[in-house]
C-alpha cells in the first residue's frame, strides 16, 4: 500500500498529506484525537474521495480503480454499526455477496469465520442486543469475509474489555503471520508498540514522524515511545482534540 | 447475485422484520382501510333506519287556530343536529301527504277530479347501472388512496435504508464494498418500490373487498351500487400507478438522504403527503372535471385524474399515454437527484 501526497480538504483548509508505504506486516497510525487517523482510513477505503494525491493498494490506483481497491481491502471502521435485525451469519452472507462470493464457497467461509472468531454460540441470533465484544467480532468477520490481503483496522480494541482486546491483538498477530498488510490506527501507545513493525505519527493531518518504535525513540532522543510521541505531537489544541 | 439484487433482498428481509413497516405496509391497509369504509356506512344505515321507524314526538303550539283558513305551520329544527334535520324532513313529508289528502277530500266534496291538479307526473330514473354507480364512487375514493399508499407504503423503508443506515453507522461499511454507489442506491430503491407496491395493492384490494361487503348497506340507504373491477382495469390501474410509485420512492430516498436520523427523516418526509392531498381534493370535489390532455402531464394530478377515469370507464389512450410518459420523466428526474445526492459527501456524511 503506497500513499503519495494523499490530500483532503475540509473547507478551504488543506488538512493533511500522507506519503507512506506499507508492506506486508503491520503498520500503525498513531495520533491524538482529531489528528486525521480515521480520515486517512476512510480515504484509503474510498469512502471519502481525496481532493488531491493518490494511493496504490494491492496494485490498484485509488482514484482510477476504487472498486478494485475496495475489493482488495478489508475495513474495520471506527464505529461498529450492525443491522440489529440480522444475525451475524446474515451479516457475513450479505457482505460476502457484495464482495462477489456466493454458494457453497461463501457458506464454508462464513462457517470458518464464525468458528475462528468464536461466534458459534450466537451466530444465528439477531445482533441488536449484542455486547461490544460480540459486535466487534461480527464487524471483524465482515472485514475478513472476502479474504483481503490488506486490512484497515480503525481503533480495533476501542471500548473492549481486557480479554476481548487481547483476542483482537492475537488475531492481528495472526494476520501478520498470514502475510497480510495491516494498517492499524490507534491512540494507544502500548498497542502500537506491541503490534506494529512501523509507526506513523500523525498530528493535525500530517505525518510528523515515521519508523519502527525503536527508531522513533532514538530519533527523538527520548527514553520511551510515550515520551517520543509527546515530543512529536506536543500540546494538543482544543479544536483538534474535539 | 449482482450487488443491486443483493441489497434489494437484504433490505426486504430487514423490512419484513421491522414491526413499524409491517404495520404501515400490511396490517394498516388490510385492517384499518376496510374498517374506515364499513363502520361509517353501517352507522349511517343504523341511524337512518332508527330515524325512519322511530315515533315522531311533535310539540304543537297554537292548535286553537286550526282548522279553517289555511294554517301556516312552522316546523322547527336544530340545523346543527343531523337527527333533528332528518326528523324535520320526515315530519314535513308526513304533513305534505296529509295536506294532499285534505285537498283530495275537499275537491271530491265539490265534485272536482283531483287529477286536474296534476297536468303531468315526473318520474326520475337513473340511467347509470349499479356497476356504473359503483365505478363513480370508486373513481371518487380510490385514486386518492392508490396515490397516497404509493407514497406512504414505502415511507418507512425509505427512511430505514437511508437515514437509518446513518443512525446505525452501517453506511461506511456498505460503502467499502466493491459495489458502486449507483448499484447500492438501486437496490435500496427496489426495496422501497416493493414495499410501496405491496402496501398499495393490499390497501386498495382490502378497500374493494370492504366496498363489496358494504353493498347491502348502500342498498338499505337507497343507493343501488355494484363495486366490481375487471381484471383489465385492475391491471391498468397498476400500470398507471407504477411510475408514481417509482417517482415517490426516488423522492423519498433523496429527501431522507439529507437526514442524520430516523426522526429527522420523518420530519422531512411527512409534508410530502400534501403533495398528494392537494391535487387529490381537486379530483374529489370536481368529479365532472374534464381537463385538457396536457393537464394529464401534471405530476400527481395527472395520475389521479387517469385513475379516476379508469374506474369510471372513461379513460382514453391519449390521457393514459400523456400521464404515463410524463410520470416516467418525473420518476427519472427524481432518481437522478437521488443518485447525485448519494455521491455527495456533504450529504452522506452531514453532521
Series of H and E elements of chain A: EEEHEEHEHHHEHEHEEHHH
Overall average residue pLDDT of chain B: 85
Q: Give the termini separation of chain B.
A: 34 Å
**Quaternary structure annotation:** heterodimer
In total, how many domains does the architecture of chain B comprise?
2
Mean pLDDT of chain A: 83
Global morphology of chain B: elongated
Structure overview:
The complex is a heterodimer of chains A (242) and B (351). In chain A, helix 8 packs across helix 9. Chain A has a single domain, classed as Rossmann fold (3-Layer(aba) Sandwich), CATH 3.40.50.300. Chain A has 242 residues and is α/β, with parallel strands linked by helices. About 4% of the residues of chain A have low confidence. Chain A contains 10 helices and 10 strands. Chain A has a 6-stranded mixed sheet, sandwiched between helices. Chain A has a 4-stranded antiparallel sheet with strand order 2-1-4-5, covered by helices on one side. Chain A starts with a strand and ends with a helix. By secondary structure, chain B is an all-alpha fold. Chain B folds into 2 domains: 247 residues, no CATH class; 49 residues, no CATH class. Chain B starts with a helix and ends with a helix. The interface between A and B is medium-sized, with 31 and 25 residues.
Amino acid at each position: 500500500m503506497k500513499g503519495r501526497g494523499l490530500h483532503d480538504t475540509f473547507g478551504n483548509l488543506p488538512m493533511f498529506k500522507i506519503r507512506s508505504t506499507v508492506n506486508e506486516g503491520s503498520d500503525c497510525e498513531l495520533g491524538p484525537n482529531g489528528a486525521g487517523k480515521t480520515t486517512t482510513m476512510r480515504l484509503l477505503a474510498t469512502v471519502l474521495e481525496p481532493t488531491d494525491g493518490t494511493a496504490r493498494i494491492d496494485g490498484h490506483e485509488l482514484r482510477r480503480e476504487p472498486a478494485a481497491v475496495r475489493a482488495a481491502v478489508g475495513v474495520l471502521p471506527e464505529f461498529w454499526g450492525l443491522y440489529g435485525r440480522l444475525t451475524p451469519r446474515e451479516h457475513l452472507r450479505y457482505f460476502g455477496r457484495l464482495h462477489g462470493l456466493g454458494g457453497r464457497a461463501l457458506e464454508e467461509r462464513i462457517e470458518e469465520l464464525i468458528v475462528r472468531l468464536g461466534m458459534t454460540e450466537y451466530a444465528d441470533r439477531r445482533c441488536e442486543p449484542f455486547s461490544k465484544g460480540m459486535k466487534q467480532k461480527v464487524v471483524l468477520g465482515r472485514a475478513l469475509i472476502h479474504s483481503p490481503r490488506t486490512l484497515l483496522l480503525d481503533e480495533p480494541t476501542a471500548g473492549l474489555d481486557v480479554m476481548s482486546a487481547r483476542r483482537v491483538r492475537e488475531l492481528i498477530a495472526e494476520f501478520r503471520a498470514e502475510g497480510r498488510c495491516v494498517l492499524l490506527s490507534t491512540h494507544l501507545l502500548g498497542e502500537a508498540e506491541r503490534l506494529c513493525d512501523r509507526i506513523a505519527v500523525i498530528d493535525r493531518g500530517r505525518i510528523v514522524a515515521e519508523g519502527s518504535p525503536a527508531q522513533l525513540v532514538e530519533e527523538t532522543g527520548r527514553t520511551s515511545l510515550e515520551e517520543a510521541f509527546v515530543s512529536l505531537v506536543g500540546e494538543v489544541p482544543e479544536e483538534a482534540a474535539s | 447475485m449482482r450487488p443491486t439484487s443483493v441489497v434489494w433482498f437484504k433490505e426486504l428481509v430487514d423490512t419484513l422484520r421491522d414491526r413499524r413497516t409491517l404495520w404501515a405496509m400490511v396490517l394498516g391497509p388490510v385492517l384499518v382501510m376496510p374498517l374506515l369504509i364499513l363502520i361509517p356506512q353501517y352507522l349511517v344505515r343504523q341511524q337512518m333506519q332508527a330515524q325512519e321507524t322511530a315515533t315522531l314526538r311533535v310539540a304543537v303550539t297554537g292548535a286553537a287556530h286550526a282548522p279553517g283558513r289555511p294554517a301556516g305551520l312552522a316546523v322547527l329544527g336544530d340545523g346543527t343536529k343531523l337527527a333533528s334535520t332528518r326528523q324535520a324532513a320526515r315530519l314535513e313529508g308526513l304533513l305534505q301527504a296529509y295536506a294532499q289528502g285534505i285537498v283530495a277530500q275537499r275537491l271530491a266534496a265539490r265534485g272536482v277530479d283531483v287529477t286536474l291538479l296534476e297536468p303531468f307526473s315526473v318520474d326520475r330514473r337513473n340511467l347509470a347501472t349499479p356497476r356504473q354507480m359503483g365505478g363513480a364512487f370508486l373513481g371518487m375514493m380510490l385514486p386518492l388512496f392508490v396515490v397516497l399508499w404509493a407514497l406512504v407504503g414505502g415511507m418507512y423503508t425509505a427512511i430505514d435504508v437511508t437515514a437509518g443506515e446513518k443512525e446505525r453507522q452501517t453506511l461506511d461499511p456498505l460503502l467499502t464494498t466493491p459495489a458502486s454507489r449507483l448499484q447500492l442506491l438501486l437496490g435500496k430503491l427496489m426495496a422501497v418500490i416493493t414495499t410501496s407496491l405491496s402496501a398499495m395493492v393490499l390497501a386498495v384490494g382490502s378497500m374493494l373487498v370492504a366496498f363489496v361487503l358494504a353493498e347491502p348497506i348502500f342498498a338499505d340507504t337507497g343507493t343501488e351500487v355494484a363495486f366490481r373491477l375487471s381484471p383489465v382495469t385492475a391491471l391498468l390501474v397498476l400500470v398507471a400507478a407504477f411510475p408514481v410509485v417509482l417517482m415517490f420512492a426516488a423522492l423519498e430516498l433523496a429527501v431522507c438522504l439529507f437526514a442524520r436520523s430516523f426522526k429527522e427523516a420523518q420530519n422531512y418526509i411527512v409534508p410530502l403527503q400534501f403533495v398528494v392531498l392537494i391535487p387529490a381534493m381537486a379530483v374529489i370535489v370536481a368529479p365532472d372535471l374534464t381537463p385538457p390532455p396536457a393537464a394529464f402531464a401534471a405530476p400527481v394530478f395527472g395520475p389521479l385524474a387517469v385513475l379516476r377515469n379508469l374506474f369510471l370507464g372513461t379513460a382514453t389512450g391519449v390521457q393514459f399515454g400523456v400521464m404515463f410518459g410524463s410520470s416516467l420523466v418525473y420518476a427519472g428526474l427524481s432518481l437522478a437527484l437521488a443518485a447525485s445526492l448519494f455521491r455527495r459527501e456533504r450529504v452522506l456524511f452531514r453532521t
